[in-house]
Design a protein that fits this description.
- The complex is a heterodimer of chains A (262) and B (316).
- Chain A is mainly alpha-helical and 262 residues long.
- Chain A contains 10 helices and no strands.
- The termini of chain A are close together.
- In chain A, 36% of the residues are buried.
- Chain B is an alpha/beta fold and 316 residues long.
- Chain B has 2 domains: 5-93 and 170-315, Rossmann fold, CATH 3.40.50; 101-168, no CATH class.
- Chain B contains 9 helices and 11 strands.
- In chain B, strands 6-7-8-4-9-10 form a 6-stranded mixed sheet, sandwiched between helices.
- In chain B, α3 (109-119) packs across α4.
- The longest helix of chain B is centred in the last third of the chain and has 20 residues, at 251-270.
- The radius of gyration of chain B is 19 Å and the shape is globular.
- The chains are: A mainly alpha (262), B alpha/beta (316).
- At the A-B interface, α7 and α8 of A face α3 of B.
Chain lengths: 262, 316
């Protein structure tokens, strides 16, 4: 147990500290100009100094990310349930889900921004389109991945369609579903940032992507790094949250969550 | 053997329709493979019938057809004299035990065993009481809070049997249930299953490719041959019940094992050419003094109770 904690937290943290220290030392020693690579301490200082601006932007990006994620999860799951109703439905609709997936969001974002008045809604829609596909494909696969023996057992016990769904298909799908969530949560954030790059928000509704753009134009590289840091941090937190959720749901039984004895 | 009652005595009084009546059942898969040539077979109440044969002889297919899991391409199946629509009614309950335990990994042993009752809408209190009783029967009373993955293969199989017994079935169909287990565990489970059968008096159809398992368990062994799968011969194991581990080391046991082994050999060398259903009738290796159990015309012989009275010469 103690070793486990050591391996999971202390080791990566140590690597982080070493890298940051090296970075700080190199930047100072080589006298790298601030507008090229700022030192970690300066980035931290900027983070504190510009906190009102940056946290405000973080909040905007978070709102878009979460809204998009929720839409992707609900919409994707609903679509997966439609798909598994019959092979016919899946064959007819799945190509369009793929179409949605393969079209680069940067290419359709301008269209969506033209069609949708509200910038926030437009961004959310773009991010949701990016994030929805893993949920659809994983959940569909999961709902279909029912052990044939268990399916026979349910059939022999004259289980209703609803009983089979609730007691067999949904539990069988959960590991796949959570796999989809992990990918989708990251994509929601990426979608939110990319869409904002394309759309541009500005003013009070500016997200982190906008701050990066503007900082880039102004050569305010420390702020750019600070914004980048916040995006990365959000991504990591989202991932950890998904891992935790998955463990909560599957920890007791699924192979993926079992700790292997040394 | 404490009670020296021949199995046949227990069955002699059995009247009424056969538990399962298989008439001319054939199975041809979509790719043209004929899994089952026309098969005739009848199983009477209280029998422990084993389908024995090499892999590919259609024994699992036949069992799945009886369970209603696969539709025969031709022929007719009757359960307790009625059609499939009446299966599941009181006195006509049928359960199927799969090759592997087929447990839901996401729920504990208790919920797994309770599943058939939950699906049937049995109230929770009553269901839980029946689950307790069923788990006690298979010796897993203390493991109801475990997840399937925390159990050994043998215990998982016991859970599967407990789930089958919880509905108080009249006919138990087992498809090579202990095939994946080690021999020691398998022998133990065989003995426990046989004891349950003796106590509960349900009818059992059991698929295996183990000669020793077939001799130890069965009141009657149906030897099947492959390509296409068909009934080759039926052999009554006329050893008294209840049988214990001691039965395995008797001369009688060895004689039956030899008989079945010869029978399987014959079935495999005979091959496909003989299309005549009655071909094995009276061939060498058929036990003497048998009133027709090994008669190739399986349908007729198995319906005659007299067939059970025969004692193979090999065991004399």
């Amino acid at each position: 147990m103690k070793r486990d904690w050591l391996g999971k937290v202390v080791a990566p943290a140590a690597v982080g500290v070493v890298v940051l220290a090296l970075w700080q030392w190199l930047v100072t020693a080589l006298e790298v100009p601030v507008y090229l690579v700022p030192s970690p301490l300066l980035v931290a200082q900027t983070l504190v100094d510009d906190r009102v601006l940056l946290l405000g932007s973080l909040w905007v990006t978070l709102k878009v990310t979460f809204a998009a994620f929720v839409i992707a999860v609900l919409g994707g799951t609903a679509m997966a349930f439609v798909f598994v109703q019959s092979r016919w439905v899946e064959r007819s609709l799945f190509p369009y889900a793929v179409l949605l997936q393969v079209t680069p969001i940067v290419a359709i974002a301008p269209l969506i921004i033209i069609w949708v008045d509200n910038a926030g809604v437009a961004l959310t829609l773009c991010a949701a389109i990016v994030a929805i596909f893993p949920v659809i494909s994983n959940t569909t696969l999961g709902l279909r991945s029912v052990s044939p023996g268990l399916a026979d057992l349910f059939r022999m016990n004259k289980a209703t369609r609803w009983q089979t769904l609730a007691r067999l298909r949904i539990p069988s799908a959960l590991p796949y579903f959570f796999g989809g969530l992990r990918i989708s949560s990251g994509l929601s954030l990426i979608g939110a940032v990319v869409a904002e790059f394309v759309a541009g928000t500005g003013g009070t509704g500016a997200g982190l992507a906008y701050q990066i753009l503007v900082s880039g134009f102004q050569l305010n590289v420390p702020r750019l790094f600070a914004a980048l840091f916040l995006i990365t941090l959000t991504g990591v937190v989202l991932f950890v949250l998904m891992v935790w959720l998955s463990r909560l749901a599957l920890g007791d039984w699924h192979e993926s969550e079992l700790t292997i004895e040394p | 053997m404490a009670v020296d009652t021949p199995a046949t005595d227990a069955l002699q009084g059995a009247v009424g329709p056969a538990v399962v009546d298989v008439r001319g059942v054939e199975k041809r898969f979509a790719n043209g493979t004929q899994a089952l040539a026309p098969v005739d077979l009848a199983v009477r109440p209280g029998e422990f019938v084993t389908l024995l044969g090499p892999s590919g002889c259609g024994k699992s297919t036949l069992l799945r057809a009886i369970a209603g899991l696969t539709q025969p391409s031709a022929g007719a199946l009757r359960w307790w004299g009625g059609d499939a629509g009446h299966v599941g009614e009181p006195g006509r309950k049928l359960v199927f035990v799969f090759q592997d335990a087929t447990l839901m990994p996401w729920t504990r042993v208790r919920a797994n065993v309770r599943l058939p009752l939950d699906l049937a809408g049995v109230p929770r209190d009553e269901a839980d009481a029946r689950v307790d009783a069923s788990l006690a029967l298979v010796g897993l009373a203390k493991f109801d809070r475990h997840y399937p993955r925390e159990l050994s293969g043998g215990m998982q199989m016991r859970t599967s049997i407990a789930r089958a017994l919880v509905t108080e079935p009249d006919l138990l169909l087992l498809d090579e249930p202990f095939g994946a287990l080690d021999e020691i565990t398998r022998n133990k489970l065989d003995a426990d299953l046989l004891e349950l059968w003796w106590r509960k008096r349900f009818t059992v159809m059991f698929v295996t490719h183990s000669i020793y398992e077939a001799v130890f368990l069965s009141t009657r062994v149906v030897v099947m041959s492959a390509r296409p799968g068909r009934v080759f011969r039926e052999i009554v194991i006329d050893a008294p019940h209840p049988r214990t581990e001691a039965f395995r080391v008797t001369q009688e046991f060895a004689a039956y094992a030899k008989l079945l082994s010869e029978c399987l050999m014959e079935a495999s060398t005979e091959g496909a050419p003989s299309r005549n259903a009655g071909a094995p009738n009276g061939t060498a290796g058929a036990p003497q003094g048998n009133d027709g159990a090994p008669d190739g015309t399986a349908g007729a012989s198995s319906r005659g109770v007299a067939a059970m009275a025969g004692k193979p010469g090999a065991s004399a």
